[in-house]
Specification:
344 residues, 14 helices, Rossmann fold, alpha/beta, 9% strand, 5 strands
Length: 344
């Protein structure tokens, strides 16, 4: 019951971010990068993020134990939108053994010798794992669309490079691939960090002004900023054509980094709640075998030691909690027995 209430609250919180499948999106008009969903101050969001991180840790443990589903997080954004920071903060409480982050840069010669989805398919998460694509297959309908000359390096047959239908074809191919993943137990969670042009300008300046942030700055980022309107159109088309029932897009307001982290964690936690992974249960025969091992280990206890110290501690803690619920003061001193009036 508690899980259902939490899932409902999460669903209501993330609904404004969701791109309704089949809807036509104009990014600048339909989604506000400064939206805060009623969370007006950063300090008000701290508890929300901490709760999201806690729930993510809990559900990741269950996901790994069940070993039935995998989760692929697709993260797209313009430069300086906070992708790396979002990953670092949202995933801060999870077991690193169950998470893999992959960043995709300019394709290698080997990758260009394969179909455009090949290099992404190689890094899909296994069952029980969470995989994060920092940039993703959507680069093929974003950067490549803004810079169509890149197609000439992809060694495609002429029929696959026809400008009039190449993008529609790729939208369909990506949708089909994601549907295949969803039908085979890989949940695809797609997050677009929506940054305003002015906020990007400020963040670029910060990288220039702070010496310990200079390493983050690239002149190529400023060059790409010159294509802002082209990217906004490409993003709008991407969201319009690839938000599906099996893998919808969520547009996360990113002008405030702290809120972007809250929004991203809420979407991911909600996806895990819908999967609802469970810790495996043992059969009666398996339980009996475990009890036999337990008895053997208890028999090995040294003289004077508790047979099962953990069980002893659990029992003591449960007794103390029960006494507290029954109104006994747990810190009250033990009274000496009353032996009657003293003589003499």
């Amino acid at each position: 019951m508690a899980d259902e209430k939490r899932k409902q609250r999460a669903a209501e919180f993330i609904e404004p971010f969701r791109v309704k499948p089949g809807s036509k999106v104009t990014l600048a008009k339909d989604f506000d990068p400064a939206f805060r969903a009623g969370v007006n101050k950063k300090k008000d969001g701290v508890a929300l993020l901490e709760e999201g991180v806690r729930l993510l840790s809990e559900y990741q443990a269950r996901l790994a134990a069940q070993n039935t589903w995998g989760v692929l997080v697709v993260l797209q954004a313009l430069d300086a939108a906070g992708k790396d920071g979002t990953i670092r903060h949202v995933m801060s409480g999870v077991n690193p053994q169950g998470v893999a982050v992959h960043s995709f840069k300019q394709p290698s010669a080997e990758e260009l010798d394969h179909d455009f989805l090949w290099r992404y398919a190689r890094h899909l998460p296994a069952r029980g794992e969470i995989g994060i694509f920092n940039r993703s297959q959507y680069e093929e309908v974003l950067v490549v669309r803004v810079h169509p000359e890149i197609l000439d390096h992809e060694q495609l047959p002429a029929s696959a490079k026809r400008k009039r239908d190449v993008w529609q074809r790729r939208y369909r191919q990506i949708n089909d691939w994601e549907r295949y993943l969803a039908e085979n137990g890989i949940r695809v969670v797609k997050l677009f960090l929506n940054l305003s042009k002015e906020e990007q300008r400020i963040r670029f300046l910060r990288r220039l002004d702070l010496p310990d942030h200079n390493w983050k700055f690239s002149a190529a980022d400023v060059n790409e900023r010159g294509y802002w309107d082209h990217y906004q159109k490409a993003f709008s088309e991407m969201l319009t054509h690839t938000s599906t029932e099996w893998a919808p897009w969520y547009v996360i307001p990113a002008d405030r980094k702290w809120f972007a982290r809250i929004g991203a964690s809420a979407v991911l936690v909600h996806a895990l709640m819908e999967i609802n992974p469970r810790f495996p249960t043992v059969t009666k025969e398996q339980r009996e075998a475990l009890l036999e091992v337990k008895r053997d280990l208890e028999a090995q206890a040294p003289e004077g030691a508790q047979a099962d110290p953990f069980d002893h501690e659990q029992t003591a803690a449960a007794t103390a909690a029960s006494d507290g619920r029954n109104g006994h003061r747990l810190d009250a001193p033990v009274a000496a027995p009353d032996d009657g009036p003293a003589s003499g």
